[in-house]
Amino acid sequence: MDFNFSQVVGLIETLYSNTLAAGQVVQVQSQLQQFQKHQGSLQVADQLLDPRNNYSLECQFFGALTYTVQLNQIFSTWGAVVDDESDIDDDETLKGATGTDDTRNMVDQLTLRQLSHLNNLLTQHFVHRQPNLFVIKKVFSNLSLVYCHNFHNWTNPLLSFLGTQDDPSISSLRLSVANIEHHLQASLAGSAQKLQLVLLFSQIIIEDILKNNTMSDHLDQQLHTCLRKEVFVVTEFFVNYSMNLVIEKLNNNNNNNNNNNNNNNNNNNNNTPKLSNDNNQLLADAVRCYTAWTSYISFSYLNSTEKFIIDPTLNLLIKFLLCHQTSDQLINDSDSIFVVIEFLTNLLETNANLLNNSFKQTINDLIFKDWGMNYLNFLNGSGDDDLIENEKSVQDFAKLVISYFELDMVRISKLLVDDSCSYIFQALMKLTAFPGTPILDEEISRDFIEFWLETSDTLIDDTDSLLILLKTTENLQLFKKNFKTLLELLGKTYWTKVQLPLANQTSMKMIKGQYKDEYFSYRRDVGDLFDSMYVIIKDSIFKFLFDNIINNLNVTSLTLQNASEVEASVFLINCMCSNFSEGNVPDEIFGMLVHLFSFHRNEEINFLKIGLITNNSYLMNTTVSFLSSINFFYKSEQGLGFLNEILDYLFNLLSLSIQSKELPGKFQFIVARAIASICSQCRTFLASSLFKFEPLLFNVINSIDFKAFTREKVINSVSFIIQGIKNPQTQGEYIVKLLQLINDQSTKIFSEIKSGRVNNNHDLNILLDYLVSLLDCVLQIARGMQLPEESVIFYNDEERQLVDNFWIADNLGIHSMILQIISGFSLDPELTNIFITNHNNGESLGVTDGSVKINYHNLVTEKCCEIFRAGLCEDINGPFVFADNQIIIDYVLSKFEDTKNRIDVDKPHSSMTLSIGYLFGLLETFVSANYRKLSKEAVTNCIITIFVMNPQLLNSDVDLFTNALQFLNKVIEKKPDLLFYISDNSANYFATILESCMVVLKQSNEKFVIKTVVKFWCNLITLRAGTRENQEYITRIFIDEQFGQKLTNVTFSALLKSTRSNYEIYCDIVRNMIGKYPLQFKQWANNALILINNQRVSNGKKALPDIRQLISKLYLTKGTRKVNMVIKDFWLAANGLMDI
Amino acid sequence: MSSLRLARLQEERKSWRKDHPFGFFAKPAKNPDGSMNLQSWTAGIPGKPNTLWADGVYPISITFPDDYPSKPPKVKFPANFYHPNVYPSGTICLSILNEEQDWRPAITLKQIVLGIQELLGSPNPDSPAQEPAWRAFGKDRATYDKKVKEQAQKYIK
Predict the structure, then answer these.
(1) Which of A10, A352, A493, A878 is deepest in the core (most CB within 10 A)?
(2) What is the rounded CA–CA span in Å between residue A838 and residue A845?
C-alpha cells in the first residue's frame, strides 16, 4: 500500500481527535500500523518529528513511535547472523550477534537522527515552552532500545546525548567515560534543566533494561559490564553532582541566614548551573533516577559478577537530611525530605542486600540520634493537632523505622537491655499511638501492628539467637522484664485503638460503610497481636482488660464511652480466649471470669446487661462471641453456677433479635450458634433447668418469624440437653412435647396450604420453607438424641439396659409419632403434589411469575431419609431407632414408587431423580448398619424392584444407576449371601444387572460413575465377605458363562479410551483379576488386547504396543499397586503421549 | 522441621502480615508453650460479595507437608462442607493444590486462599469431589443455592 504524507498526517489527527467510533479507531490504527512497517515510513517520521514543521504534538509522538516500530523490526533479526556463522571465533560471534556492518551503520544513522531530533525537541521544550515531554521521553526510550541491542558499538548514550548538542556527528557516538570529567563540567555549564534530562534519560534506560531482560546470558554479562563502566559512572556523577548542588545551596542559605547576610548567593564555580528555587524538583529527579538504578543493581547482583559502589551517593542523601535542622528548613524542604525517606525505606525493604554494615549504622544514627528525634519532635510540634497535620510525613518516617528494624528483628532485644536506648522505644510507642481513629484518621498504627507482631513472634520463637546476643542470663532476665513492660504498654495503646467511636456518628457511619472491611480487618489484626503477646505477658493483660470492664460497670449510669471500652475489652479477651481449652487455662483466668459475672450480679448494671441497657448491637455481638468461647469456664466448678443465667441471657437476646429492627438480621444466627455451642458442650449440666426453656421452644417452633437456621440450632441445642438426661422417661416426655408441637404446627400449615387460600408465590414459599424447617427440627432432635461418642462411659450396664428396654417398649408412642410426621410430609399424595407443583410451575396455585422454584419434594425426601439414617448406627435402642427393619424398607419402596411415577424418563437429568438418590443412599446406610439382621427376601425384593422392574428408569439417568449400584455394592461388600440363591429366577436378574454394569463400564466418562461401577466389579471379583457357595457361584459366572472374558474386553477398551485423569481407576479391576483368576486372566487379557488392536488397525489407528510384553509385566507385579505403573506406560504409549 | 520449609513458612507468615486481602485471616497454630506451629495453620475465607457465599467466613485448616514447598499443603474445610469440589472429609479439590496438576512451589498462601475463594462461587463441574452438592449443582440449582445460603448462615461473619 502506498502512503502519501498528508494522508498519514490526516489519519494521525483523526486517530487522536477522540471523535471516532470504536470500529473506526481499529480501522485507522490498522492503516497506520501498515504505514509504520512500510519502507519509507522513517522519512515521514523525520518530517513529523521536526518541530520546525509545526505538526501537532500527537504527530510528533507518532513519528517517534514509527522509529520504535522500525527499530524493533531491525532488532528482530539482529542476532540471527550468529546461526549462519557458527565456525567463526568468539570476536566474530560477537560481531555477528550485533548485526552486520551494514545494519550497524544503519543503526548508527538512525541513532544520530534521533539525537538530532532530540536537540530540536529540547529547543521546542525550553525555548518555545511546548509541553512535549512525552515525545522527548519516547525518543529517549527509542535510544534506550538501540543501546540495549547495540551497546558493543554504542557504549555511552548519556554522553552522546550531551555530545551531540555540540557536535552532531558520528564521533558523538564514540564518547566514553575515560577522562570525561572535563567534558561533563563543560556540558553542564549553565543548565540545571540539562541535568534533569540526563537523569531522566538514565532512568529510562535502566528501567527499560529491567523491564525487557530477555537477552541471552552471554549478552547479559557484557551488558552488565558496559552499564557499570559507562552509564552508571555518568549517572552517578550526575546524581551526586545534583545532590551536591542542592546541599551546597542549602548550606549557603543556612550560612546566609546564620550571618544575617542579605547578599545574593555566590557560587565560586562559574560552571555550576544556576539552580532555580525549586531544589525539590532536581532532588526528586536525582532520587527517582537512583531508585531505578538501585533496583537494577540489586538485580545485577543476582545475575552478574559486577559490583557497584553506591555508598557515596547514599551518604550524600543522608548529608542532605542532616542539613535540615530547624523548623524552617524542615518545612521548606518537606517534599524533598519525604522523597529521600521514601527512597531509604524502599531500599531497606527491597534492596537491603546492597547495604553494608557501616551504612546500616549510619541509618541507625540518623533515625535514633539527634536528627531523627529532632524530626519527630518537629512533626509532633505542639501536640496531637500538629502530629495529625503531618500524618503523611509521620507515616513515612514510621515506615523507615520499621523497615530498618526488620533487617534484624533480634537486634531489638539488645536495645531493650540498654537503658540509653529507652528513648527509641518511647519514640516507637509514640508513633504507634498516633492520634485518631485507625483507618478513618490514621494508618500508622496499622503499619505498626505488623512490626510488633513480627517483634513479638521473633522474640518468642528465636530464643537461641537471643541468648547468644544477650550473652548473660542476667541480660536475658532484664530483657524479658523490659519486653513485658513494653508489651503491656503496647496492649494499652491498641486497646484504645480498637475502641469503636460509638459516640461519633460520622465515624460510625464510615465504619459501617466504605471502611467496613478495612476497619474490621484492622481489629482482627490487633486481635492477632494480643494473641501473640499473651504468651509473654500472660495474665497481666487479662487483668487490665477485666479491670477495665469492671470499672465501666461500676457507674450509676452508662454512657456510650462505657459501652465502647467494654466492647474493646471483651473483643480482645475473646481473641485470647479462643486459644484456651480445658486443662490449659490458668487459675487466675477463672478467678477473673467469676469476678466478671458476679460483679453487681443482682443490680441494675452488670456485665450481661450492659449491651441491652446501651442497646448497642456491637457490644451485644462481641459479648455473644465471647460467651461462646468460654465453654471451659461453664464446665468448671467455678463457672457452672453462671451457666443457666448466661443461657437465659442468650435466649432473651434471641427473642429480642426478631423483635428489634435495629439489630442486624445476622444477629440471631450468632446467638443461635452460641447457644448450640454451649448446649452441646455442657449438656449434662443443663438437664435440671430444661423446663425453663419451654416457653422459648414453644415460641421458636410456632413463630414463623425465626429464621430456619435459628429454629433448627435451638431445637438441636435443646435436644442435646435432653439427651444428657439419663432417665429415659423424662427424655421421652420432652421429646413428645417437641414432636407434638411440630406435628400440630405442621398440620396447621398443611391445612392452610391445602385450603388454596395462599395464592401468592412469595407467601407460599415462606410457608413451604417453614414446613421444611419444622421437618428439619425433627431431624435436629434425632441428631441431638444420638448417643455421644463416649456412650460406653455415658451409661453403666444397668442404665444401658434400662434405656434399651424403655425404647423397645416405647410406651409414649414416640416411634409412631415420628412415622406419622414423616408419612404426613412425605407420603401424603396431596402434599407431595403441592411440593412438586410448586417446583414445576406453580400455576395450579396461581403462581405465574416464572421464577425458579425450589424442589421442596427433594428437600422433604432428603430430610425424611436423614431422620431414618440418624438412628441407624446407634448402639442401643432410642427414639429414632426402629427395631423393625421393614419400616425403612417399606418407606423407601413406597416413596420410590411414588417418585418414579413423577419422572418423565424421556427427559433425562430431571431434578426429581435426586429424591431417588436420597432413598438409595438410605438403603445403602441401612444395609451397612443392619446387614446381619436383614433377610434375603427383603433385600432381594428391593433389588428386584429397583433393578429388574425399572430398567428404563435406571437407564434414563446414569446418576440414578450409580446410586442404585452404590446400594448393591454395599450388599456385596457386607453380606453377598443376601444377593444369591434367594429365588428360582435369581440367576436371571443377576445376569441382567451384570449386563447393565458392563454397559455402564464401557460407556461412562464421569469419574463418580466409573469409580462406582469399577468398585462393583472389584467387589464381585474378590467377594471378601462371601461364603464358599457365593465364591463358586461367581467363579462359574466368570469362567463358564464367560463374564471374565467380557469384563476384560470392556475394561481394556474403556481404559484405553479414557482420559489421563481416569485411566488409573480401571487398574483396580486388572489388579483384582490377576489376583483372583491368574490362570484365566492371562488368556482373557491377550484375547481382549488382540481384539482391540485389530479394531484399531482396521480403523486406521496406531497399533497397540507389545501386548505380550504388557501381560508379562502385569504378571510380574503379582497384582500389586505396581500394576498402575505398567498400565500407565501402556496407556501413554497407546495414546502417543509422553509422561511429563 | 526442614530448614527450607521453615524458611519458606516464616516468609509466608511475614508476607501475609504485610499484605493480606480484607476479610481473610490466616495464622499458625500454637504449641503448648505458646510458640508457633508453622506447619499447621487455620484460616478463614470470606465469601465473595454479591455471591451466594457472601455472608459467611469459611474456616479452613492448612497443613504443610515435610517436603513443602516441593509438595503442596493440604487444605481442608470442616467435614461435610457443602461444595461440589470439596470431598466429604473436607479436603479441597483444586488444581493449584494438586502436586500432579498446577501446584508450583512459588504459589503463596495468599494465592491459595484467593483461589479457594474463587472456587466457592465458581465450582468446577469437571472435578466433582462429593455427590450431594455436585448433583444438586447440576440438576437442581435452586436447592443448591438454598443449601449454600443456609451454610453461609452457619459460618456467618
Answers:
(1) A878
(2) 8
Give the three-state DSSP class for A156. Answer: coil
Q: Which three cell numbers stand for residue A968?
A: 448393591
The grid coordinates of residue B5 equal 520449609
Answer yes or no: are the C-beta atoms of A416 and A479 closer than 8 Å.
Answer: yes
A1014 has a pLDDT exceeding 70 = yes
CATH class of B3-154: alpha beta
| Angstrom distance (rounded) from CA A112 to CA A160 | 9
With contact defined as beta carbons under 8 Å apart, do B32 and A584 qualify?
yes
Which residues in chain B show pLDDT less than 70?
Answer: 1
Residues 6+ apart with CB under 8 A from A652: A612
Q: Cα(A345)–Cα(A338) distance, rounded to whole angstroms? A: 10
Q: Using CA atoms, how far apart are residues A265 and A261, in angstroms rounded to an integer?
A: 10
- Segment A286-323, tens digit of pLDDT: 999 999 999 999 888 888 888 898 999 999 999 999 98
CB contacts of A959 in chain B (<8 Å) are: 135, 139
Of the partner residues A528, A669, A708, the one whose CB lies closest to the CB of residue B27: A528
Cell of A674: 452460641
Q: What ipTM did this prediction achieve? A: 0.90
A638 residue type, one letter: Q
The answer to whether A288 touches A203, Cβ cutoff 8 Å, is yes
- Beta-carbon contacts of A841 under 8 Å, excluding residues fewer than 6 positions away, are A847, A853
Which residues of A are less than 8 Å from B150 in CB distance?
708-709
Residue pair A574/A531 in contact (Cβ under 8 Å)? The answer is: no
A438 - beta bridge partners? A442
pLDDT tens readout for residues A16-57: 877 777 777 788 888 888 888 887 888 889 989 988 888 889
Give the whole-angstrom CA distance, residue A374 versus residue A382.
13
Backbone angles phi, psi at A304, to 5 degrees: -150, 180
Nearest to A611, CA basis, from A599, A596, A623: A623
Distance CA A287, CA A340 (A): 7
Distance between A671 CA and the closest CA of chain B, angstroms: 11
What's the count of helices (H) and strands (E) in chain A, helices before strands?
59, 0
Percent helix, percent strand, percent coil in chain A, to nearest 5: 75, 0, 25
pLDDT the model gives residue A168: 62
- Known catalytic membership, residue B3: no
Q: Which of B38, B62, B93, B119 is catalytic?
A: B93
Burial of A369 (0-12, 13-18, 19+ CB in 10 A): exposed
Residue A186 grid cell:
563543560
pLDDT tens by residue, A420-443: 788 888 888 988 998 899 999 999
- The neighbouring-strand residues paired with A846 are none
The 10 Å Cβ neighbour count of residue A202 is 26
Helix (H, G, I), strand (E, B) or coil at A430: helix
DSSP letters spanning A81-95 = HHHHTTTS-HHHHHH
* Pairing label, strands B25-30, B57-63: unpaired
Residue at grid coordinates 443461635: A672
Of B30, B139, B157, the CB nearest to A914: B139
In chain B, where the domains are located: 3-154
Cα atoms found within 13 Å of the Cα of residue A608, Cβ hemisphere only: 23
Contact of A487 with A479, CB cutoff 8 Å: no
For B36, name the nearest residue in chain A, comparing CA atoms only.
Answer: A461
Chain A residues closer than 8 Å to B27 by CB: 528, 531
Beta bridge partners of B63: B40, B74
B32 vs A803: CA distance, rounded Å: 41
> Which amino acid belongs to residue B16?
W
Q: Tell me if residue B29 falls in helix, strand or coil.
A: strand
Q: How many residues does chain A have?
A: 1140
Q: Which phi-psi region, left, alpha or beta, contains residue A596 (left: φ > 0; alpha: ψ -120 to 50)?
A: alpha
